[in-house]
Amino acid sequence: MKHFTSANDSADPLVLARQTIALKNQKQNFEHLGRSKTLGLVFFNPSLRTRMSTTKAAYDLGLNVLVLNVNGDAWNIEFEDGTVMDGSSQEHVKDAIKVMTGYCDIIGVRTFAELKNREDDYTEPVLNAFLEYSEVPVISLESATLHPLQSLADITTILETDISNPKIAVSWAPHPKALPQAVTNSFLQWIKFIEAEVVVAHPKGYELHEEFTGGFELTNDQSYALDSADFVYVKNWSSYSKYGQRPPVSQNWTITSEKMAATNSGSFMHCLPIRRNVVAEDQVIDNSLIYKQAKNRETAAKTVLKNILEDINE
Amino acid sequence: MKHFTSANDSADPLVLARQTIALKNQKQNFEHLGRSKTLGLVFFNPSLRTRMSTTKAAYDLGLNVLVLNVNGDAWNIEFEDGTVMDGSSQEHVKDAIKVMTGYCDIIGVRTFAELKNREDDYTEPVLNAFLEYSEVPVISLESATLHPLQSLADITTILETDISNPKIAVSWAPHPKALPQAVTNSFLQWIKFIEAEVVVAHPKGYELHEEFTGGFELTNDQSYALDSADFVYVKNWSSYSKYGQRPPVSQNWTITSEKMAATNSGSFMHCLPIRRNVVAEDQVIDNSLIYKQAKNRETAAKTVLKNILEDINE
Amino acid sequence: MKHFTSANDSADPLVLARQTIALKNQKQNFEHLGRSKTLGLVFFNPSLRTRMSTTKAAYDLGLNVLVLNVNGDAWNIEFEDGTVMDGSSQEHVKDAIKVMTGYCDIIGVRTFAELKNREDDYTEPVLNAFLEYSEVPVISLESATLHPLQSLADITTILETDISNPKIAVSWAPHPKALPQAVTNSFLQWIKFIEAEVVVAHPKGYELHEEFTGGFELTNDQSYALDSADFVYVKNWSSYSKYGQRPPVSQNWTITSEKMAATNSGSFMHCLPIRRNVVAEDQVIDNSLIYKQAKNRETAAKTVLKNILEDINE
C-alpha cells in the first residue's frame, strides 16, 4: 500500500479489515518495523481520538511521531498557484508539504469540509496537495469527503460480530450544527465490500452524493430501514444538494430504545463524539458498539501503518 | 498502588517519600518497566512544570506519552447525566474518558478549582469522572482540592534534610489573584505522616477546610508560626468560607529576610510559580529549597508511575 | 561544544559544516548517544520547520523530546530583576529556566526580535537569560538577532556544491511585513569562514549592523551584486537604523528569471517560508536550493546535538 486515503487505495478493503482483526489478537511485538522512522501528523483541524489512536498505533510499531497543529491564524497557507503572495498567506502549500515530508517517512493529514462551496470540498484541495507534493506515503486522518480510518474500524467492528449477511441500516440523525458528509460517504464506500443488505434512511433534502449511495436501497422512512436490522449505523450530516445547509426536518429522527426494539436485536454504531439524547437516547448509546469502534480505530491505524512500513522496508 | 489521587491512595505515604529519595540516588535503568506502554496526560488547565516533570519521569520508565490539551473552546465536555446535548457540549465525559483510556495504560489528569461554587469544587467532578469511567489507573496531576505529586515532592524534600522532628510553619502569603486551596490542603494531608510540629498561620477569613487543618495548631499570627521554624512552607490561597473570595488583609504577610531571621535557620519552601517580592522577597527565594522541590517533582512522579507499573506488570 | 548560539560557539564553523555533510552520507546509527537523555525545546514564538527538523534530529540521536510552547497569554514571564510581581507576570525567567533545565539534558530556545526597540533586541534578553540560568547546554533555535542552525544548513548547502571560491550575492527582497535581521546577520557571520567573494545588496535605509557586514562589499545596486554570482542568497529584513521600520523602496527588488540570467547559472537560496512572486518569481523558486537547505536543517541540528552529546558523555 502506497497511500491510504480511501477504500480505493487498498487492493481489497476486506483483507485490510481481516488483518485488523488478526492484529488485535496478536501478541507479537512489531516495534522493529518503524524503528528509526518518523510519522508526521499534520492537523488542519483539531482532533482528539484520531490523534490519540494514530499516535498509539505508531508507538506500537516503534515509530517516532511529529505532530503539527496548523492553526489558521498562525500560519496561513496559500493553495492557489501563481499568486502574488503579498497578503496574509505566509507559505505556499507546495513548499510547506515538500519541507514537512522531507523530515518524515510517512505523513498523515487531517482536514475538514468547510461546507461553504461543494466543489471546493469535493475536489479535496488539501489532501490532493499532499498527494501531489509529498515525497512519502500519505495517510488521510479524515478529509473533506471521506474518513477511511473510521470506516476500516467500522467494518472491522461489524466483521468481528460474525453475523453473516447482516441487514445494516444507515440512518441520519439530528444534530445542532451542520456537519460534513465524510463519515457516511466513507462508510458506504467501505461497506460495499461486505456481503450485507444496506438500507440508507434520511429525511428529504439530505440525499448524499450518488457515488456513495449508488447500489444501496434509499428511503425517507427511518422505521423501514430499522426494521429487523442487525446494525444501526447512525450519523448526522448536512445537505449535499443545498450544500452545507440544514433543511427543516418534521419527524423525530433521534434513535430511541423503542425504535431499536423493532430491529433484530440490532447493534447501534456511531463514530463519536456523540450528542447524547439528540442523536440517540442514553440507553441506546450505553448498549452499543461505540467503544469497540473507538478501540478499533487504534488497530485500524496500526494495520494501515504496518502495511505501509512493510512496503517501505521492502 | 491502583490510583494516585491523594495521600489516602498509598498504604503508607512515608514509604513513598523514602522510595523517592532512594530512586534519586539509584543509577539503575528502569526503562523496561514501561516499555510498550503508554501514559496519557489530559490537561483541562495549562501546565508547564507538571507536564515536563511527569513526561520526563515517564521517559525514564520507558513509557510512551500521549498529551491531550483540552481547550474549553475547542471541545466542550458535558458532565451532567441525562442531558439533551443540543447546546455547546460536544461530548459526554463518560464517552470521552472511556475512549481516551482505551488508548492508554495509565492516565494522568489535571484540573483546577473554578472557585465559583465550593461544593462543585470539593466534590471533584472531573477527577471523580475519571475514577468512575477510566479502565486504567488514574494519576492526579492536581485536582480542584489536592495536589498529591507536589506534596510527595515536598515531604521528600523535607525528609532529605534529615532534620528530626522539625517545626514546620505553613504560612499564607499575598497574591494578586484568587488561587485554589489545593496545594496547602494537600501538603497538610501528607505532612501528617511526618513526625513534626506543624503550625498553620493565615489572616482571619482564610481558614481552610477542617478536614485538612484538624490536629494542627492554627494561628493568625505569622510571627508566632515562624518563630524557631525549621521549614517555612508558604502559599497563597483564597477564602474557603467566603468561597474563592479575597477578604482584606491588614498586615503584611510577605516573607522577608527579617522574618526568616526569627526562624531556626529555617528553609523557605514554595511550590512555584512564585510572585517574587509579593509572596516573598528575592533574597528569601534565592536561598530556599524551591529548585530542590521542583526537581523532586520529577522523581515523585517516577516513584508513583513505577509503583503503578509494577502492579500492572504483576 | 558547550552551547550553540552563534558561529562563535564553534572552534571552527567550517568543520561543523563538513561534519554535517559527512553525517548526511553516514548510515551509522547514533541512537545510543542520546539514549535516556532529554532535549527540551522552548518556543516563545511559533515554529514549524525548526521544531520538526530539530525533533527529527533528536529522534535520530535517540533523545527524548519535551516541547514547551510559551504562549504569552497563558504564562507571562518577568525578565526584570527585583520587580514586585503583583501585575500580570506569573513567573520570573530565572525560576522558569532553572526549573525547566532541571528536567532536561539539553535545552533549545526560540525567540524573535520584537522590532520595537533596537537595544532590547540586540542585547538578546531571552537567549542570554537561558545562558545565565540554564544548568545544561543551550541551543539557539533562532534568537532576536541570529539564526545559527539556519546558517549552518546554508553554508553546508553551499559547500556541498563543490564550487570553489564562489561569488555569493546576498540580496534584500520585498515582503509585506517588517521582518527581523536575524537570518541575514547570521548568514554573514557564518559565510566569513568560507573562501568566497561576498557582495551584499539592499536599498538605501536597509543597512545592517556593521558587526555583520564589516569586510564585505556593500551596494545599493542589485544587478551589480547578481552579476556572475554563483549563489543568490535572498532575504527580506526591516531597517536597522530606523529600527523595525520599512523605508520606501523605489525599484523592484523581486528576484526574476531575467535577473537570474545575469548570474553564473547561479543557485537561488532562501531560508523559507517564502512569499512567492513577492520575494522571487515562481520559476526562480522552483529551480532553487530551498528544499536542500530545508533538509539540511535536520542534519545541521543533528550535527550540533551530536557534538554536544559527545561532550556530555565524555
Description:
Chains A, B, C: Belongs to the aspartate/ornithine carbamoyltransferase superfamily. SOTCase family. The structure is a homotrimer of 314-residue chains. In chain A, helix 1 packs across helix 7 (148-160), helix 1 packs across helix 13 and helix 7 (148-160) crosses helix 13 (290-313). The first copy, chain A, is built from 13 helices and eleven strands. Chain A has helices at 13-24, 31-34, 49-60, 93-102, 118-122, 125-133, 148-160, 182-191, 210-213, 222-226, 257-261, 282-286, 290-313, and strands at residues 38-43, 64-69, 77-78, 91-92, 106-110, 138-140, 167-172, 197-201, 217-219, 231-235, 267-269. The mean pLDDT of chain A is 96. Chain A is α/β, with parallel strands linked by helices. The first copy, chain A, starts with 12 loop residues before the first helix and ends with a helix. Chain A has two domains: 7-147 and 296-313, Aspartate/ornithine carbamoyltransferase (Rossmann fold); 150-293, Aspartate/ornithine carbamoyltransferase (Rossmann fold), CATH 3.40.50.1370. Chains in contact: A-B, A-C, B-C. At the A-B interface, helix 3 and helix 13 of A face strand 2, strand 4 and helix 4 of B.
Q: Can you count the beta strands of chain A?
A: 11
Strand line-up of the largest beta sheet of chain A? 9-8-7-10-11
What would you give as the CATH superfamily of the largest domain in chain A? Aspartate/ornithine carbamoyltransferase
- Rg from Cα of chain A: 20 Å
Percent helix of chain A, as a range, is: 25-40%
User: Order of SSEs of chain A, N→C?
Assistant: HHEHEEEHEHHEHEHEHEHEHEHH
What summary fits the major beta sheet of chain A? 5 strands, parallel
CATH-level-2 architecture of the largest domain in chain A: 3-Layer(aba) Sandwich
CATH top level assignment of the largest domain in chain A: Alpha Beta
The 3D shape of chain A can be described as globular
Mean pLDDT of chain A: 96
Q: If you consult CATH, what is the topology of the largest domain in chain A? A: Rossmann fold
Low-confidence stretches of chain A: none
